[in-house]
Amino acid sequence: MEMISQIAGWVLLLLGSAFILIGAVGVIRLPDVFARMHGAGIIDTLGAGLILAGLMTQAGFTLIMVKLAFIFIFLIFTNPTATHALARAALNAGVKPLTNFKKTGEDKPSKS
Amino acid sequence: MAVTALTMAHLRNLFGVVMLSGVFSLQAAALYVALDAVDVAFTEAAVGAGISTLLMLSALAITSSMEKSRKGVSKGPLALAVLTGVLLIYATFDMPVYGDPNAPIHQHVALHYIKNSGQEIGIPNIVTSVLASYRGYDTLGEVTVIFTAAAGVLAVIGRNRRSRGKDKKNGEKSMKFKSVLRVTSKLLIPPILLFALYVQFHGDYGPGGGFQAGVIFASAMILYALIFGVGNARQAIPAWVTRSGIALGVLLYAGVGIASMLMGGSFLNYSVLASEPTLGQLIGINLIELGVGVTVASAMVTIYYNFAAKAPEEWTPEEEEESEGDL
Amino acid sequence: MFAAAAIAILAAMAAALARALMGPTVFDRILAVNSFGTLSVLLISVYGFLTGRPEFLDIALVYTLISFIAAIAVTKFVKGNDENKAGDSEWR
Predict the structure, then answer these.
(1) A70 and C39 in contact by Cβ < 8 A?
(2) How many domains are contained in chain B?
(3) Same domain (yes/no): B217, B297
(4) What's the CA gap between B277 and B223, in Å, rounded?
(5) What is the predicted ipTM?
(6) Which of A64, A67, A70, A88 to mutate to test the interface with B (most CBs of B within 10 A)?
(7) Which of A70, A95, A110 to probe the C interface (max C CBs under 10 A)?
(8) Mean pLDDT of all residues in C6-10
(9) pTM
């Protein structure tokens, strides 16, 4: 039982770290604000969820696990909402999404 | 952190500067966590990255959002800043090595606190016992500073008499476009308020206490005001409640001190408040933390109300013609 | 195991910071700061386990809520009218 929780913890933490790195690369390299929101979403939800799940297996059935579960629940509620509000505000401010990637080349931000 | 600070100096868009100052506070909080100062990290994260960003943003909404351009670099202030920095770094050479057990700060009073806080005060969190009991007089000064800040904002910006009727109408109109935010906030505000209460009363046993709890409470109220409009927020917690709250917290704090004087001890000596000293300390500490929390929450909410009431009406897509300000 | 996760989180924080510093529009910066906040929540949780002191989780919980409120506030107050078009970040 001890071994299973250790292995599960390792696997979840490593997966979570991998997804966080993927998301970070996405935030830097993607060409447009709206595309970068996808990268940030990977970090916030998937990476955070896996890492917190990995930490939960290490904690056992104590108050710590409940607190970690609360952090995860709040993250799930708040991060997509914040991204939604951000995308709506960006649209209202006039930032146009990049729709013709081949013509404008890479890493050119879109102006209105 | 240095990179963040330098970028903040370079940027002209003030919104970016405000966000970066939030990042700077967060880096400072991470630094404090690494240095094992959990209470300080808590306060820094809540205040520096949370409330400061919110209040600066609401101030930015009134002024313009780009800094005025300046021709070239002004040499005088830059030289002064560099000179001060060099002098400060030179002064740190004289300080004892970090963590040295023979440093003066680790002798004298700190040893007494660490050794005797258990018997004399009886709560597990030494930071709270030092802050609230051994150094209660200083904390009274801090609460008075917050009170003065809120009073200063009230004196300068003043009360908004004319917009009371308009607030309700504007509040209702802008709620149509934000269904996702409305639902999520309605789900989240009660846990945030509960968490503020938890932090307030858990300060004896873990990181927490009055300041952090007040800040979290104020953040929940500001979230409500952001999404449902300042008019609706003013109906939920009216302005007179927050104005009295600022004074009430300080009154509670000083009142505990005077009560302990009336019961025979000196000012802010909680041991005389009950039959045995540790129980008296517990009562005293909880009461003054409550006072601190009430003042901090009311002060932040008051400042936000006053800033936000002056902001021009927010820009929603279908309502471009209704751009009259609140005044 | 915790050390590996902490290093990955630190690398991602550096990346988010870089995006915050160089993002051409202000919304890039807001996005990057929001990610930075979530990553620092994760870092504090992992660090708490690393040093065997899980009291830090209170800080992480508070900061999740506070960074959400700050992000919402910024999107409310960023104006999209004439002088503050979203794509201005001139360096002096």
Answers:
(1) no
(2) 2
(3) yes
(4) 41
(5) 0.77
(6) A88
(7) A95
(8) 85
(9) 0.79
